[in-house]
Amino acid sequence: MLEFQAWVVPLTESWPLPLRAALFPVVLLTTMTYVVMPAVTRLLRPWL
Q: Quick check: is 39 in a domain?
């Protein structure tokens, strides 16, 4: 997560705070839902 913030914060410094605050959850939740969790589910399929 820190890498994401280090990359995005300089690009969004001029944005209003509410918009910046909304960006992080939307991007991270989308990434977790559609990229990370399917991979973890496949990896842990025998245990699940």
A: yes
